Amino acid sequence: MKEIKVGIIGFGTVGAGVAENLLNNGDVIAARAGVKPVLTRIADLDIVTDRGIKVPDGVLTTDAAVAIRECDIVVELVGGTTIAKKFILDALKAGKSVVTANKALLALHGEELFAAAEAAGADLFYEASVAGGIPIIKALREGLVSNRIERICGIMNGTCNYILTRMEREGADFQAVLADAQKLGYAEANPSLDIDGFDTAHKTAILAALAYGKWFGLDAVHVEGIRDLDLIDLRCADEIGYRIKLLASIKQKDGAVQMSVAPTLVPKDALLANISDVFNGVLVDGDTVGQTLFYGRGAGRRATASAVVADITDAAINLDRGCVRRIPAFRSAPLYDRVLSIGEISSRYYLRFEVMDQPGVVASIARVLADRGISLSSVVQREVKNGVNTTLILLTHEASEKAMRLALDEIATLSINRSPVKLMRIEDL
Ligand code: HSE
Q1: What pLDDT band is residue 332 in, cutting at 50, 70 and 90?
Q2: Would you please indicate which residues are annotated as catalytic (active-site) residues?
Q3: What domains appear along the chain, each with residue ranges and CATH number?
Q4: Residue 331's pLDDT is what?
Q5: SS3 for the chain, per residue?
Q6: What was the pLDDT predicted at 346?
Q7: What is the pLDDT of residues 281-301, one digit of tens each?
């Protein structure tokens, strides 16, 4: 059986997982693929620290150029957006197939990297960049190829999902649960990437490019994180039949694309609402297939290695059969060009007011909303006993974000609010 040489650049957690999988399951992969990917080189500046696996003699090197020169497939697992980009471009220019898990790099420089792959006539695979071990890239690129993608909704950050799950179940404080997530190794080294929504935004940009054939760029994604989420909103949502998830949303409406990452209310009985702890879930709504849901571990050494090695196997099969770039990484032309800014979208909304308990307060809020054409679908006021303030929860029917913002600006002038109004969007699934 033909052997294909694999070089890994970056011997961190995922690099070690990939090496371990190739060493342990190489025979299983070869039996399925009819070609054997062989771990030939691992490049890292630190080749001394024990990663808990026995690497064959002669595999480790401190020189990434050696891995690029000697191998057929180069696996970039360095992370970051500078040197990793150089390694990928060097490998592509040398005509090597490349596999990467680097979502930040793709979100920022995807257009340039895929143009380089096309110019070199080389494969560039990226399954592990979105939702770890869930094969969502392959599903969108191949399994759902016959569909126009109407909507993708995803819980794609395990750290945030873990934090929200524990806050909801235990009434636990955000900072305490974040500290636990860091201890358990779920959070990125810089937790801001997770909790401020940027990790999910990187993945959103990649899925949007895959669905609609255009690198819209990170700036096109409206991003809100979970840092300022209050326990009271998780409780209020629960009381009215919803959960709050950090939800990525990619949709097309009348030929324009909208992309957002934000804490969002989803009905408790929706499958996506029941994806808990560190797990990820991605719902894809296709015009032909209807709804499909993908679930699994979005991070971690073994789950991510599973996706990386699947890409290595695809690259090895293509090299073996002489059909590199057999399946295009992206559409060759954009399906939709235009992006809707957040001010142009419409949605259902959750509004929480902390207001004075006085006659006419609810009526005055309802009047402003009605004047802007915003229709209420639910009104809940917690009963006031001995207090002077009350919590008022309003849910709306679909309304324009612009009208909503104008209405809230006007309500802020009414001198009835005890604290700023909390707004979140509702996604009916
Ligand atoms: N830190 C990410 C998460 C994993 O918590 O899901 C990699 O994107």
Answers
A1: confident
A2: 203
A3: 3-133+301-321 (3.40.50.720), 144-297 (3.30.360.10), 343-426 (3.30.70.260)
A4: 81
A5: CCEEEEEEECCCHHHHHHHHHHHHHHHHHHHHHCCEEEEEEEECCCCCCCCCCCCCCCCEECCHHHHHHHCCEEEECCCCCCHHHHHHHHHHHCCCEEEECCHHHHHHHHHHHHHHHHHHCCCEECHHHCCCCCCHHHHHHHHCCCCCEEEEEEECCHHHHHHHHHHHHHCCCHHHHHHHHHHCCCCCCCHHHHHCCHHHHHHHHHHHHHHHCCCCCHHHEEECCCCCCCHHHHHHHHHCCEEEEEEEEEEEECCEEEEEEEEEEEECCCHHHHCCCCEEEEEEEECCCEEEEEEEECCCHHHHHHHHHHHHHHHHHHHHHCCCCCCCCCCCCCCCCEECCHHHCEEEEEEEEEEECCCCHHHHHHHHHHHCCCCEEEEEECCCCCCCEEEEEEEECCEEHHHHHHHHHHHHCCCCEEEEEEEEEECCC
A6: 96
A7: 999 999 999 999 999 999 899
Which residue, by CA, sits nearest to atom 2 of ligand 1? 157
Q: What lines the ligand 1 site, CB under 6 Å?
A: 157-159, 186, 188, 194, 199, 298-299
Under 8 Å between Cβ of 325 and 41? no
Give the pLDDT score at 189: 67
Mutation choice for ligand 1 from 100, 177, 194, CB with most ligand atoms inside 8 A: 194
pLDDT in tens, 380-393: 998 777 778 899 99
- Whether the CB-CB separation of 62 and 44 falls below 8 Å is answered with yes
pTM: 0.96
- Token pair 């259902």 is at which residue? 348
Instruction: Choose between 412 and 332: higher pLDDT.
Output: 412
CA 366/CA 373 separation, integer angstroms: 11
Q: CA triplet 387, 392, 396: central angle to 5 degrees?
A: 175
What's the 210 CA to ligand 1 centre distance in angstroms?
20
Q: What pLDDT score was predicted for residue 388?
A: 82
Mean pLDDT to the nearest integer, 149-173: 96
pLDDT-above-70 percentage for the chain: 100
Pocket test for ligand 1, best of 182, 186, 192 (most atoms within 8 A of CB): 186
Dihedral of alpha carbons 405, 411, 412, 416, sign: negative
Beta strands at 256-267 and 338-339: parallel, antiparallel or unpaired: parallel
